[in-house]
Amino acid sequence: MTDVMSVLGKIGRRVDAEMLKLLKVGAAKDFHEVVFHQVKAGGKRLRPAMTLSFCEAAGGSQKDALSAAAAIELIHNYSLILDDIIDDADVRRNLPTTWKKFGLSFGILASTHYREAIEEGVLRSPNPIAMSKLVADAIRDIVEGERLDVLFEQVEHGVEYVDKHRYEKVTIKDYEKMIGKKTAALIRAACEAGVVCAGGSDKLRRAAREFGWKGGLSFQMADDMLDLFAEAEKLGKQVGKDIYEHKLGNIVILYSLELLSKTDREFLLKVLRAKKPRDRDVVKVIEMLRGCGATERVQKRAKKLVDEAKRALDKFPNKEATKLLADLVDFTYKRSF
Amino acid sequence: MTDVMSVLGKIGRRVDAEMLKLLKVGAAKDFHEVVFHQVKAGGKRLRPAMTLSFCEAAGGSQKDALSAAAAIELIHNYSLILDDIIDDADVRRNLPTTWKKFGLSFGILASTHYREAIEEGVLRSPNPIAMSKLVADAIRDIVEGERLDVLFEQVEHGVEYVDKHRYEKVTIKDYEKMIGKKTAALIRAACEAGVVCAGGSDKLRRAAREFGWKGGLSFQMADDMLDLFAEAEKLGKQVGKDIYEHKLGNIVILYSLELLSKTDREFLLKVLRAKKPRDRDVVKVIEMLRGCGATERVQKRAKKLVDEAKRALDKFPNKEATKLLADLVDFTYKRSF
């Protein structure tokens, strides 16, 4: 297997430089530290690695897709800045979040600037009109996914609209719709963007979308696992954040609701619905979730998605690039199972 | 003189329908009331009227520019949703603001969706790449203008970055930079977009930019007057909002600081810097501002800009359309002087 971390590191350095270049356009010097903060906090750069690899897989070269790859990673970072405001989150990647460090006003201004840095990347890509459509669709999907994620929260918001539309129950189908929009849509766009930059056929675009969609769903399931079971330091944020944030939209929690005894299920829901859950209750809930058989179900579901994603790679001519893509999707799956 | 209000009303109906169409793309049915709220609150639709008129002035027809005009007006509304969050504003056009009605999370999600509705309008315009550049530049300028506006506020934010970069003094040059970015840049883009949709020459694009820039500066000066001296009901929001929000970035206030006696100047600054200024002190300040000769200076400055803007129209062949544009810029000037 490829040394995925070292490949990602190499790609990351090129993508990071390109992102900073795009963020600099039209930003006053005094504003740099605000807009650079989120990107400089780091990240795996998985999405741009997929864009660059799909460009190669479809017969292009990485440099054709660099601006598009940076735009895709900027979308991810744009969504994180906004997410942290919406979730009232103080820490990400062991650093204060943008809004926490610079205040709400500047958090919002930074995110607004990000969207135009994304546009700059779109305009510098080989097929700006196709890229623009991909980007707009992906961001609208993220908004809808985030909307559902908020509505799945098990807590009164005190806002009429939100409380009226809240979900009391969430099915696995609701959940897959939510993570499809929130997470898989952008990974799908990352993959398709690579083919677009290579000038690849519609058939290859569809195959890349298939890979991104299935890989994206399994990625979010792995992320749900990490949220609950990772070590705090490795995670770079609070463990059990989903529980503290009253989120029913976590696959482990949803499967557990089917598997736990009535008493345990009621305890889980009580903790999820508590205004301020006690730390020791969250720890207890996490132990329950770990032991009830839900993680094995999640693993099985995610593994199936990963296998289906990898089959979509058969259609591509460049076997070296597709090998890396298969390793990438395995990597995202294995980091939590 | 043209009946400007009736012309704006007619244009407004077409632009409003187009904006709703763009906002509907990719929005779940349950999300419609959230994203429609800001646009349905109304507005003069001055910017799209300029886009449509410049398209005609440069030899095109209004329908060529309808999507672009809607995109421009959506930028304005996008900035208002964000502005209201940043300024913690509850009421606009006699209605609750989007974030106030739907909560902060949904206010942010709505604004994020607006940006993609703008992109949709860009993509449907006759020259999407040129439009995309215009739009990205304009939004980055608005962010920078808003950044300066916040930094001009005469109050501690309790955020290290903001308090470090705050302006203790604001010159007229600082002020014009701020309103140039915050207000004039979008009006300039609205005008240039019309010429772009008509496929007009670079010379005409430059002339439209000149008109939009000067007209935009005078427009903001008129707006500064209205903030302080309009009737509350007509204004649709609180009178003296700039004072309550500690804003030094108002031309009337800046000129007054030069004209008032030392005692009055100190009183003005004290009220601007008060955490929660008393209503009767704000009323007293407004009376001082009205009587000190500042408004006459503002009027003279704005009149000069309006005259220069109108001269830029000489370069256009279609005299009927340019007549309307001249009336529009006069209208924005006269509504407050």
What is the compact description of this entry?
The structure is a homodimer of 337-residue chains. Chain A is an all-alpha fold. The first copy, chain A, contains 16 helices and 2 strands.
Q: What would you say this structure looks like, in words?
A:
- By secondary structure, chain A is an all-alpha fold.
- Chain A has one domain: Farnesyl Diphosphate Synthase.
- Helix content of chain A is 74%, strand content 1%.
- Chain A contains 16 helices and 2 strands.
- In chain A, strands 1-2 form a two-stranded antiparallel sheet.
- In chain A, a hairpin with a 2-residue loop joins strand 1 and strand 2.
- In chain A, helix 6 runs antiparallel to helix 8.
- The longest helix of chain A is centred in the middle third of the chain and has 28 residues.
- Chain A is globular, with a radius of gyration of 20 Å.
Secondary structure elements and their pairing?
The structure is a homodimer of 337-residue chains.
Chain A: H1 4-24, H2 32-40, H3 46-57, H4 66-86, E1 91-92, E2 95-96, H5 98-124, H6 128-151, H7 160-165, H8 172-198, H9 202-229, H10 232-235, H11 241-244, H12 251-259, H13 262-273, H14 279-291, H15 294-311, H16 319-334
Antiparallel strand pairs in A: 1-2
Helix pairs in contact in A: 1-2, 1-4, 1-5, 2-5, 3-4, 3-8, 3-16, 4-5, 4-6, 4-8, 5-6, 6-8, 8-9, 9-15, 9-16, 12-15, 13-14, 15-16
What is the correct CATH architecture of chain A?
Orthogonal Bundle
Give the low-confidence spans of chain A: none
User: Helix fraction of chain A?
Assistant: over 70%
In DSSP terms, counting alpha (H) and pi (I) runs of 4 or more, how many helices of chain A? Answer: 16
For the terminal residues of chain A, how far apart are their CA atoms? 17 Å
CATH fold name of chain A: Farnesyl Diphosphate Synthase
* Rg of Cα set of chain A: 20 Å
Number of domains of chain A: 1
Mean pLDDT of chain A: 95
Envelope shape of chain A: globular
- State the oligomer: homodimer
SSE arrangement of chain A, N to C: HHHHEEHHHHHHHHHHHH
Note the beta-strand portion of chain A. Answer: under 5%
SS class of chain A: mainly alpha
The largest β sheet of chain A comes out as:
2 strands, antiparallel
- Strand neighbour order, sheet with most strands of chain A: 1-2
CATH superfamily heading of chain A: Farnesyl Diphosphate Synthase
Annotation, overall tally of beta strands of chain A: 2
Question: According to CATH, what is the class of chain A?
Answer: Mainly Alpha
Q: Hey, which two chains have the biggest interface? A: A-B, 48 and 48 residues
